[in-house]
Design brief:
960 residues, mainly beta, 6-stranded mixed beta sheet, flat
């Protein structure tokens, strides 16, 4: 250190030239500090949810006349080995910057000296400048309540606790005009129409307290924001991070909503998944909206069986880094759930920097300082010729690191001292949640032969890896201190090209050591090359190169390129040099991610096969499937597209035969109407061709005559287009026929009969028949009773009459077959639809008191129902409905039960009001109500329904 000279002076004249009189001592001319600043006044330092949160600040400076600079942190010297000079300054002495991560409030002092010897803090010969960086603990907010699922009309109390919050906002999440916003609570007593009030501590919210929401009728979400006051934002509670979802029983609810990867880079895709309850669809918005490029429009589906769903969204390539809040709302078509949020953090992989000082050591060997930096890195790995020196994730090398805490290597910036006895390559890899990147430097021993340049087909290979796109590539190299070079090759070993047991075979020798080139045969997906530089004293240094072939997709075939929504496409891809495949689709959501993932595997012959279902809701037009073959070392093929056209399959609007019955041989006219058809064919039940056409107007609608029909004949009509086909059938009966067909008096000749659950009988009249049999079967999944396969006889009788079918308590298929003496037959099908029924509804007593309360009993007779909902309407003096409320459902009947059977179930619902005298958990009759009226709705397992409202004569009066 430079110490002040002892010579005493009173003016500069008393000092030797080049020095000046400073506080009575002759000192060298002082250096000037032009600037010294921090880009942040405060950074975050602490833990949140058990994880360390540490921010960083960048200190920067410039000096004039300085020969050295020293940085002190709270009096302790800071190593400037990781300082970065500020161009055009040649070193950090004139101008530089360094990243610091203080864990406490820290005073940084920069001391500049005019000489080469660094200053001690406070030295009179040095110039000093000071900046202070504060360290602030992360903010945290906790929201809690006794029960997150409540009955409609209940009060809710939410408790909160905030720590280290310089600012705090708590409110209710609103979705308005496709935007998410937080409607904040007001301070207690300030009013202003806010949705809630926070306890106050002066002019700011108290750090803890309770928030009351009275008579909640709809689901909602309470959310919090907080900032700890640091400039880096790392310690803030951001939008969507802390939420409490309040659900109303029976209303739509988001049970779970998450992103498969919550840390991605701009341009990446994100798989979202959800589970909802009592909902038929979901909707999603992003905040900020510009962060998502495409995909949210496909995020609507809900599996009817388990309420699950999923979609893929693509983050915008140019999106700003930071949190993106995805907010979901579930709906049943009329009601909406409380909003639920998932946060995706957009970030960038670290940029690694590695330096060696010196890069060349003397011939006898020496040491080099390897220093690295990578802002934002959470893991650092340093290797020398493939041997791990430092791995912060595994704790390797901690004792040798020169920066940070003793015994700990710092991922963001650190250094090690390594012995260099031979030429080597040092490689530094930096990782964080968003990705990884690597860089290398060469370490050399003076006078030792070394390979200074190595490339294959123009691809730099000094880092040990080169990628070839063709079967032939040229290897080029340069070397120093080499008399000659040799080239060897080896089949790629399992352990990699650094495997000492690799079987190397000589390829060629080259007497010129300075540089050379050689044609390499690249026919394997991976192989190894070793280039050795030979010195005059028998010294040898080798560079090992792993050569990887770029994977190729030779063909990409689809079983069909014109499909309709819901169709399945079989995909087949032939690849070379591939270890797997990546398949994507545009527009996003046109195929499920799980279907695309099924194409990832490549068999031993390079073939990949999978099935992809074009999803309902896919926009009409082109859908592009894009495949990329994945190879060794992260290589990928150029993308290859397969375009399929999504269109509308044709439909048959009508197809019929006239006449429908023949008593003697005669002509039959077949007529049809269709939509979106390109061609049609008609064949009879013997497979004979009757008619065909590709004329658009004829396909859309027309007719043809079949001459001299002399037997009962069924014709099949098929309409096609490139996206699918549709069929219909029509029959003309020759011989017996039905003149009438009813079930419980309902006409069934049109194929459907509806009646109240219970006993059923089929009645009919026929022509030219001698007997009729009725058969019953289960309704198939497509509802087509002509295709039912389990018909069983329900009875038989003569040509006209009635057959008792017994009790029908589920939808059934009816088949009736009329026969004659000549063994001719005629068959009719109908779907029997049993309907639930509410046979009566009575209320008692005639009145209740609004102030004192009361109980109304609603008695019902219900038949054939499995669900029931009874609702009370509160009516004003003019008969208008003030409010409505569900009294009970099948799950909360006060007496009786629903059997769903053919007999009437006697059930009761009790509607109780506690009056105006209660304070908590009371149920009151709304002000202005003069009467109560009840209505009931029932449904069966097939969702057939019935409803009954009490008449005005049964209204229950409301007395004061």
């Amino acid at each position: 250190m430079v110490s002040p000279p002892s010579h005493v002076c009173s003016s500069d004249d008393d000092c030797t030239p080049g020095t000046q009189c400073d506080d009575g001592a002759c000192n060298a001319t002082r250096a000037a500090i032009s600037s010294f600043a921090s880009d942040r006044a405060a950074v975050t330092s602490g833990t949140r949810d058990g994880a360390v949160v540490q921010g960083a600040a960048t200190l920067s400076w410039s000096t004039a006349g300085a020969g050295s600079v020293v940085l002190f942190a709270n009096g302790a010297e800071v190593d400037l080995g990781n300082c970065l000079p500020t161009p055009p300054a040649p070193s950090c002495i004139a101008a530089g910057s360094i990243s610091v991560s203080p864990t406490e409030d820290t005073e940084y002092v920069l001391a500049a000296s005019p000489g080469d010897e660094p200053c001690a803090s406070g030295s009179a010969v040095c110039t000093e400048s000071t900046v202070t960086v504060a360290a602030v603990a992360p903010a945290a907010v906790v929201l809690s309540t006794a029960d997150t699922e409540i009955d409609s009309g209940s009060d809710v109390t939410v408790s909160y606790l905030a720590t280290n919050a310089a600012t705090l906002t708590i409110g209710v999440v609103r979705i308005e005009d496709g935007q998410r916003r937080l409607d904040p609570c007001a301070l207690a007593g300030s009013g202003g129409g806010a949705p809630c009030e926070l306890p106050a501590d002066g002019d700011r919210p108290a750090a803890s307290g309770d928030i009351t929401f009275a008579a909640v009728g709809e689901p909602f979400t309470v959310a919090a924001r907080a900032a700890n006051g640091a400039d880096d934002g790392l310690g803030d509670v951001v939008d969507g991070e802390v939420e409490l979802q309040i659900d109303v029983r029976g209303a739509p609810r988001v049970v779970a909503f998450a992103a498969a990867d919550a840390t991605v880079q701009p341009g990446d895709t994100v798989l979202l998944s959800w589970t909802v309850d009592a909902s038929t669809s979901v909707s999603l918005i992003a905040s900020p909206p510009s962060a998502v490029a495409v995909g949210l429009e496909a995020c609507t589906g809900v599996d009817a069986a388990d309420g699950s769903g999923g979609c893929v969204v693509s983050m915008a390539a140019g999106a700003a880094l930071g949190p993106v809040v995805l907010t979901m709302v579930a709906s049943d078509g009329t009601r909406a759930s409380a909003p639920a949020a998932a946060i995706v953090e957009l970030g960038a992989a670290p940029v690694p920097v590695l330096t060696a000082d010196p890069e060349e050591v003397p011939a006898a060997g020496g040491s080099a300082r390897l220093a690295w930096s990578a802002e934002g890195a959470t893991v650092a790995r340093l290797e020398i010729d493939g041997t791990a020196i430092v791995d912060t994730d595994a704790g390797t090398g901690d004792a040798d690191c020169l920066e940070g805490d003793a015994g700990t290597c710092e991922a963001a910036a650190d250094a090690v001292e390594v012995a260099v006895t031979a030429n080597a390559t040092a490689t530094f890899t930096a990782e964080n949640d968003f990705g990884s990147a690597a860089t290398s430097v060469q370490l050399r021993v003076a006078g030792t032969p070394a390979v200074t340049a190595l490339a294959l087909g123009g691809d730099d290979g000094l880092d040990g890896l080169a990628v070839a796109d063709t079967a032939q590539a040229t290897l080029t190299w340069s070397a120093v201190d080499a008399q000659s070079t040799t080239l060897e090759a080896a089949v790629f070993p399992v352990a990699g090209c650094a495997d000492p047991d690799a079987s190397w075979q000589a390829v060629g020798g080259f007497p010129s050591g300075a540089s050379g080139s050689f044609g390499v045969d690249v026919t394997a997906s991976q192989q190894c090359l070793r280039l050795s530089a030979l010195g005059s004293a028998g010294q040898s240094t080798s560079a090992v190169l792993e050569v990887v072939r770029t994977p190729v997709i030779g063909s990409f075939d689809a079983s069909d390129t014109t499909v309709a929504r819901g169709d399945t496409i079989e995909l087949t891809l032939q690849t070379s040099f591939a270890t797997g495949l990546s398949l994507s689709v545009t527009p996003l959501g046109a195929a499920l991610a799980s279907d695309l993932d099924d194409c990832a595997a490549v068999d031993g012959t390079g073939v990949a096969r999978c099935s992809v279902v074009i999803q309902p809701g896919t926009p009409l037009g082109d859908v592009t499937l894009t495949a990329v073959a994945e190879g060794a070392r992260g290589t990928g093929s150029p993308p290859l597209n397969r375009v399929v056209s999504v269109g509308t399959a044709p439909t048959v609007s009508s197809f019929g035969s006239s006449p429908g019955t023949l008593s003697s041989a005669g002509d039959v006219t077949l007529a049809w109407t269709t939509s979106d058809g390109a061609s049609l064919t008609i064949v009879d039940d013997g497979g004979g061709a009757v008619f065909s056409s590709s004329t658009v107007t004829t396909v859309a609608g027309g007719s043809t005559v079949v001459p001299a029909v002399s037997r009962t004949t069924t014709w099949t009509f098929t309409v096609d287009n490139p996206f699918g086909q549709a069929s219909a059938q029509a029959t003309t009966f020759y011989g017996p026929s039905f003149s009438s067909l009813t079930v419980n008096g309902e006409d069934a000749l049109d194929g459907t009969a509806s009646f109240v659950t219970g006993g059923a009988s089929v009645s009919f009249t026929t022509a030219d028949a001698t007997g009729v049999e009725a058969l019953l079967g289960a309704v198939p999944g497509d509802g087509d009773c002509t295709q039912a396969g389990d018909y069983a006889s329900a009875g038989a009788t003569g040509a006209s009459g009635t057959i008792d079918l017994g009790a029908v308590i589920r939808d059934r298929c009816l088949r009736v077959v009329a026969t004659n003496a000549a063994a001719q037959s005629s068959t009719m099908h109908a779907r029997l639809v049993d309907l639930p029924e509410i046979t009566n509804a009575t209320t008692a007593p005639d009145s209740v008191s609004r102030n004192a309360g009361g109980t109304v009993v609603v008695d019902l007779g219900v038949r054939g129902a499995t669900t029931l909902d009874v609702v009370v309407d509160h009516l004003d003096a003019g008969g208008a409905v003030l409010s409505s409320e569900s009294v009970c459902t099948e799950a909360s009947l006060n007496s009786g039960a629903l059997s769903g059977g053919a007999t009437v179930d006697a059930v009761s619902c009790i509607d109780t009001y506690d009056g105006a005298g209660c304070v908590l958990l009371c149920r009151r009759i709304p002000s202005g109500t003069v009467s109560l009226r009840y209505r009931a709705a029932a449904a069966d397992e097939e969702a057939d329904s019935a409803a009954l409202d009490t008449s005005s004569g049964q209204d229950v009066a409301v007395a004061p």
